Amino acid sequence: MSRKVFNKWFDKAFFILGFLTTLVGLAVLLALILDVLADGLGRLGWQFLTNYPSRKPEEAGILSAWVGTVWLMALTGLLAIPVGIMAAIYLEEYSKKNWLTNLIEINIANLAGVPSIIYGLLGLGLFVRAMGLDRSVISGSAALSILVMPIVIMSTREALRAIPSSIREASFALGATKWQTIRHQVVPAAMPGIMTGIILAMSRAVGETAPLITIGALTYVAFLPTSPISSEFPFISFQGLFDPFTVLPIQIFNWVSRPQKGFFADAAAAIIVLLAITFVMNGLAVWIRHRYQKGIRW
Question: What is the sign of the dihedral through the CA atoms of 279, 281, 284 and 288?
Fold first, then answer.
């Protein structure tokens, strides 16, 4: 058998092996989703979404958990995304290449692989105790922000690095400053890649449990964080940032640890809601990315 024929058969064998491996992974994922749907669809309903947790499985709901999840994801995005993007722009466009920037880059790459429980311990020591924020929504959001920020920074830098230098040179040739070039040319062109990193970061944050348990997030909450809209001047309230909270992953963990079988159906229904929230967040980010991609013409 000639080497050319051998390489051809090797390519086909590798293709078949990769296809079968992917098929097995998708089959396992599909089986898990179908199992969750079979257990949890019967519990889904308006009452389940608007009731607080209860000791009785048939009366339990996830109101405080899904509202806490929305609060946490919104604040995590507000904290992590702008800071991560600005840090990436500075490191990629402004900073000089020396030992200090190399050290920063190495540490950012290492932080992306640190176990999430370590960020929980950091949040407990820094935000809960040192800063006196207690076990509040802002403490949980800050801990998750530090957790996902390396992902945002690394993906944003890769997106900026992929932009052709000719775009920058053309902008400079027309008299634009460096900031104008970055703001109006480089960042919009890199936005699809930036949004991909944001999708990955927020998808990781929405399912994290260990950091929130470490900082002391409650497993049973029969109230909601204070609404940000107030009836009194200035009609905005920040009290909700300092209220205790729970989230869907913690509520699911609490239910699956119960001996009653009814709570397993509740946990499956909560998993469906968590998946729906994740899909909505990712779908919005994909839509924004697609919108920017349509406007890019290199």
Answer: negative
* Domain assignments of the chain as residue spans, ordered by start: 1-40, 45-295
Q: Is the pLDDT of residue 117 over 90?
A: no
Q: Are 221 and 67 in contact (CB under 8 A)?
A: no
DSSP string for residues in 63-82: HHHHHHHHHHHHHHHHHHHH
Classify domain 45-295 by CATH number: 1.10.3720.10
**What are the b/e assignments for 224-250, b being 16+ CB within 10 Å?**
ebeeeeeeeeeeeeeebbebbbbbbbb
Kindly report the backbone phi and psi dihedral angles of residue 114, in degrees, each rounded to the nearest multiple of 5, phi listed first: -70, 135
Closest by CA to 116, choosing from 149, 70, 88, is 149
Taking only the tens place, the pLDDT of each residue in 255-274 is: 888 888 888 888 888 899 88
For CA atoms 120, 124, 127, 130, the dihedral sign is negative
CA distances from 78 to 39, 85, 190, 273 (A): 35, 11, 20, 23
What's the N-to-C CA distance of the chain in angstroms? 46
- C-alpha dist (Å) from residue 270 to 51, 145, 203, 244: 12, 24, 16, 20
Q: What pTM was computed for the model?
A: 0.82
Mean pLDDT value across residues 169-175: 87
Is 160 in contact with 186 (CB distance < 8 Å)? yes
Which class for 44: exposed (0-12), middle (13-18), buried (19 or more C-beta within 10 A)? middle
